[in-house]
Amino acid sequence: MSSRLPFCTAIADLKPLRYGVHAALALALLGGTGASQAATLHIAAAASMTDAMNEAIEAYAGQHDDLSVVPVYASSSTLARQIANGAPAELYVSANIQWVDWLENQGVTLQERANLLRNRLALIATAGGGDAFVPGEDGRLSERLDEGDRLSVGDPDHVPAGIYAREALESLGEWADLEPRLARGSDVRAALALVERGETPLGIVYQTDANASDRVRTLGLFPADSHAPILYPATLIGDRVSDEAAAFRAWLDGEDAMAIFDAHGFSPAATDSR
User: Is 4 contained in some domain?
Assistant: First the structure.
């Protein structure tokens, strides 16, 4: 029996979103030798890109009625492992460089790899809670937690947002005190949800995730030099890349897509591949 796992096995509460489905059905109903079905493009993208990528896909699909786009969102590590295990994905956008490197080391063919976007790391509290606090400037973060309180983060063992958070806390000399008090989320959106629900008073997420929720408040941003640059590399997957995947990847670098990403708090990255 094959050991391969279904693509969504490790993705809790996340479902693929489909665009262009009605167009595909209409073409199928035409029948006859002249009719062709809509092409399907599978995308794997970091959970922190959910809102921005959904909007980008909707804008692109509105110009391409013959295309069905199926995105799946989860932590970059989960997606990378699933792709290496044979999951259907022609485009992968990770929230850090390391998981793209890992895929390459697994023998997965990557094409047109380049950094697409940048992000920042934010300290958040539930909406209406907490005073402004810039980590590294306004005292120790551990002193903002009461006894028994926990700090929500993406799991630092594999989630990019958690890895960046660990780097920042180590740089600020707070990791040893805060590590035992972490509430570890399966991805950055899970970490965000803990703060939204009031299960933790504070959390560390990307600036874009904080912007996406009206149930949290950004207290301050971590110093950019306290962790590695938060880059989102995008790469096409496989030896044979469809024209549809190549066209969508090229479109993501254009003004229309970048305007959408900018509205969600991302900034463009340099075009070098590393």
Answer: no
Q: Tell me if 236 sits within 8 A of 91, measured CB to CB.
A: yes
- The Cβ of residue 198 has, within 10 Å, a number of other Cβ atoms equal to 12
Pairing mode, strands 267-268 and 67-74: unpaired
Beta strands at 216-221 and 267-268: parallel, antiparallel or unpaired = unpaired
Residue 173: give the domain boundaries: 121-221
The enclosing domain of 187 has a CATH number of 3.40.190.10
- Give 151-187 pLDDT, tens digit per residue: 999 999 999 999 999 999 999 999 999 999 999 999 9
Same-domain status, 73 and 130: no
User: Crossing angle of helices 160-171/188-196, nearest 10°?
Assistant: 70
The CA dihedral of 27, 18, 71, 182, to the nearest 10 degrees, is -170
Statement to judge: residues 110 and 138 lie in one domain: no
